[in-house]
Amino acid sequence: MNLYVPIAVLALIAFGFAMFSLVASTLAGPKRFNRAKSEAYECGIEPTPQPVGGGRFPVKYYLTAMLFIVFDIEIIFLYPWAVTFDALGIFGLVEMVLFIVAVLVAYLYVWRRGGLEWE
Amino acid sequence: MGTERTVAVGIGAEELATADMTLNIGPQHPSTHGVLRLRLTLDGERISRAEPIIGYMHRGAEKLFEVRDYRQIIVLANRHDWLSAFSSELGVVVAVERMLGMEIPERAVWARTLLAELNRVLNHLMFLGSYPLEIGAITPVFYAFRERETLQRVMEEASGGRMHYMFNRVGGLKEDLPAGWLDRARAAVREVRSRMSDIEWIIRGNEIFRARTRGVGVLSPEAVLQYGVSGPVARAAGVDFDLRRDEPYLAYGELFGPGRPGRVVRRTEGDCYARFECLLDQVYVSLDLADACLDRLADLPPGPINVRLPKVLKAPEGHTYAWTENPLGINGYFLVSRGEKTPYRMKLRSASYNNIQVLSELLPGNLVADMIAILGSMFFVVGDIDK
Amino acid sequence: MTTSLLAAPPATPLAAGEAPTLEAFGLDPWWLILAKAVLIFVFLMLMVLFEIWFERRFMARMQNRLGPNRVGPLGLLQPIADGLKLPLKEDLVPRGVDRPVFILAPALATMPAFLAFAIIPFGPTVSVFGHQTPLQLADLPVAVLFVLAMSSLGVYGIVLGGWASASPYSLLGGLRSSAQVISYEIGMGLSFVAVFLFAGSLSTSEIVASQERIWYAVVLFPSFVIYAITMVGEVNRIPFDLPEGEGELVGGFHTEYSSLKFGMFMLAEYVNMTTVSALAVTLFLGGWRAPWPISLVDGANAGWWPVLWFMIKLLLTISFFIWLRATLPRVRYDQLMKLGWKVLIPGALAWIMVVATIRVLRNEGISTQQVFFAVAIVLGIYIVASYLWDAVRGNRRDAEEQEATAAERAGAGDSTGGDPMAGGYPVPPLDAPHYHGRNSTSKEVNRA
């Protein structure tokens, strides 16, 4: 676990800095109330009331997120394989080709179904 | 239909709604460079209707023309399109001279042609810089401004102005060109020509720039004719029309034709890329024309550059229409006189006004993401729209 | 299980000036750890200030300008002046935002950015007050994975900042930004695989050590190219800076932020830029090792010298970012996603397979020359085939296009009633749909 101690120390410093900045920004700046100023920005036109977070997320971003998870897991599987590649030899290669082909099928399916269109 | 929501600019807003949605671009929006406002109706990511709303910058130029005498009108006329001031002045003086039946000294004709072409280069350079900027390339604008500076220096030396030159007078120019100016102008033209490739190569062959402009915002020649679109925007759509060649004024009659430097730049694609290319190529043509004018001016014998005018200048009763090929398109002045020292009516036909109308035809069917690219490629000046 | 597989580095004895391995870590006394952590933090802050100055000056030179030159010598203090100005501005929290999330989002974006730098090696083992220690804060058996994890965490700052702002621009800016970052992270992750294949480790110090003979940027050039593209997408810079740059979205996810909160987002962005650049140096450009001609000099890779090589490489990589920004326009959102998903990911996968196959063949005793020969033949066939394919298809498309334009011409002639220039002036058609109050697209006119 010793390996992670320095990272924890750095995390503490970064956390301290972030908190300091957040507090400093509320304390250091001037405060002049103005109703129009506290409205959300909409190009100088009276803003439309928006629920927090805009209410709904467009579905295609969920899709992107899901695709990301699928492919990210694939990468995670590739890492240990790559590290011990020399030891695994041809067996490792064949196994990985099978795995990638399986992922590729999913990838092509997504492509064909229009999951990779962003227009 | 569903409920209509109004949300100002934001590509994204439409992604939240499934129903038709109204979106305001402007009046305060960077891509409209000025105070043009567009009301878009969106169907998902696509624009289904676009309506340009103009008038935020209306200054009543036409009404003001009616209470100014012919000397004062020039100063008003060079303000509606602040990027092509010299060319706009030209329309007024040409109209008045035509009414008076005035003969212009030959040196004045050539000097005007020269300055008009330099003004065209200045105008085009501005858009050659600002269009890439809107698409995200920040460097061309600085290159363009370096060239503009080079040319503006000679323009300033001759006229005393950098933007609103006020160098035209009824009957010629305000004063003669300074001694040795022709050589300096020639050097400036040569310099600009030699460095134009900087702008050209950073943008023209760029894959990303092409991907964003090729096949985007295609304007058909029919729409051009129906809406009275003119200038480089029209020629990029394949409409072969250029007043300098088709109804020559000034010295253009001698400059256009086979074996002469003048040629009409034209594309047939009608997309944003073609419009950009038209502008770019027109710069080269204008520089060639300027060189030809400089050669001619150097050969001309010394003589007057303007005509002595009476104290009170009155145009005879009647009407005339003078149109010029301004950098952005056709600029026309319809002058009606009742023999007084001010015009009875002076109708201004400005290029941007017509060019922008076609947006209601051009934008529908396009993605909102392409709107910026299309808007930038219409090359308009808001003052020229609103007058 | 995975970890135990990864954490089996070849044991090498530790000595000053040697390339450290994983064994060398976790031995520092507490004061050294603290000093290193503080140094990394200070280094990153200074780098951000320097980068801002450097970017502005360097880009200015590319654009015939001088850049900031008023505050301090050569304008060096300009970023500090700007940084001091930020907290003195009003810290706006618009009405209707989700307050806690809105306030914490900048911190969430900043912290992981700093953490990722912990595993970047600056140099070999040196002696500090009698302690032999590697010039690197920490190394893990999964160091590179840690960087990816941190950059994923940084996305939370962006997406939550956009979500909490209760403004359509912010929300969509945030969503797009995160969609972009995660899409490019896949390509980035895949570009690493070939490196691990060669290095046999995920630990950064060992990856640097394994580049003693030749840089991976040379051996694994396609991987390097893919990484170079994805790193630009990952930190949202031109040509992939849509979240902030695109006109329609105004400021993107930080539209509603002001004062230091805005500053923190900017800080995170620049720190991220430093991190991905440092990672490029570490994984592909030989890390702190001296470049070729210098590496022949005895002692060039020992002591504190490597810090210099590392810094030079880091600055060159950062210059690459600035160069891009001065040169390229911005891509459109769908083009950006298309590049990420349809080009980089399959490309990276194919390249991994190629690398793995070649390596297996070599391990099985087939010589490199034979492999290259075989590859050359395959490539040759591929190039010829694709050329023929293009030629055939190109011809067909040209013919189609010509037909189409011809048809269009004919159509145009019909609808305008012949030559538009008849009589010397352009003559508009005497009857067009919009004269009757009907708004038609140009395509409909064409058809009519």
User: Using only CA atoms, what is the Rg of chain C?
Assistant: 28 Å
Task: Summarize the helix and strand pattern of chain A as letters.
Answer: HHH
Helical proportion of chain C, percent range:
55-70%
Mean pLDDT of chain C: 80
- The total beta strand count of chain C reads 2
Number of helices of chain C: 16
Greatest interface by residues involved: A-C, 72 and 97 residues
The biggest sheet of chain A amounts to:
none
Question: Looking at the structure, what is the overall shape of chain C?
Answer: globular
Task: Indicate the structural class of chain C.
Answer: mainly alpha
Q: Would you identify the CATH architecture of the domain at 55-119 in chain A?
A: Up-down Bundle
> What fraction of residues of chain C sit in β-strands?
under 5%
Report on this structure.
The complex is a heterotrimer of chains A (119), B (387) and C (448). Chain A has 119 residues and is mostly helical. Chain A has a domain at 55-119: Methane Monooxygenase Hydroxylase, Chain G, domain 1 (Up-down Bundle). Chain A is built from three helices and no strands. The longest helix of chain A has 28 residues, at 85-112. The mean pLDDT of chain A is 79. Chain B has 387 residues and is an alpha+beta fold. Chain B folds into two domains: 6-53, no CATH class; 61-386, Orthogonal Bundle (Cytochrome-c3 Hydrogenase, chain B). In chain B, a hairpin with a 2-residue loop joins strand 3 and strand 4. Chain B starts with 5 loop residues before the first strand and ends with a helix. Residues 1-19 of chain B have low confidence and may be disordered. The model of chain C is unreliable at 1-16, 411-417 and 437-448 (pLDDT under 50). In chain C, helix 6 packs parallel to helix 14, helix 9 runs antiparallel to helix 11 and helix 9 runs antiparallel to helix 14 (333-363). The relative contact order of chain C is 0.10. Helices cover 64% and strands 2% of the residues of chain C. In chain C, strands 1-2 form a two-stranded antiparallel sheet. Chains B and C meet through helix 1, helix 5, helix 6, helix 8 and helix 9 of B and helix 6, helix 13, helix 14, helix 15 and helix 16 of C.
Structure at a glance:
The complex is a heterotrimer of chains A (119), B (387) and C (448). Chain A has 119 residues and is mostly helical.
Write the layout of secondary structure elements.
The complex is a heterotrimer of chains A (119), B (387) and C (448).
Chain A: H1 5-28, H2 59-83, H3 85-112
Chain B: E1 6-8, H1 13-16, E2 21-25, E3 37-43, E4 46-53, H2 61-65, H3 70-77, H4 85-100, H5 106-135, H6 140-159, E5 168-169, E6 172-173, H7 181-203, H8 207-213, H9 221-227, H10 232-236, H11 243-246, H12 252-255, H13 272-299, E7 318-326, E8 329-337, E9 345-349, H14 351-357, H15 359-362, H16 368-376, H17 382-386
Parallel strand pairs in B: 1-2
Antiparallel strand pairs in B: 2-3, 3-4, 5-6, 7-8, 8-9
Helix pairs in contact in B: 3-4, 4-5, 5-6, 5-13, 6-7, 7-13
Chain C: H1 2-6, H2 30-62, H3 78-85, H4 99-116, E1 123-128, E2 131-135, H5 143-164, H6 168-199, H7 204-209, H8 216-219, H9 221-234, H10 242-245, H11 259-284, H12 292-295, H13 305-327, H14 333-363, H15 368-416, H16 442-447
Antiparallel strand pairs in C: 1-2
Helix pairs in contact in C: 2-11, 2-13, 4-5, 4-11, 5-6, 6-9, 6-14, 9-11, 9-14, 11-13
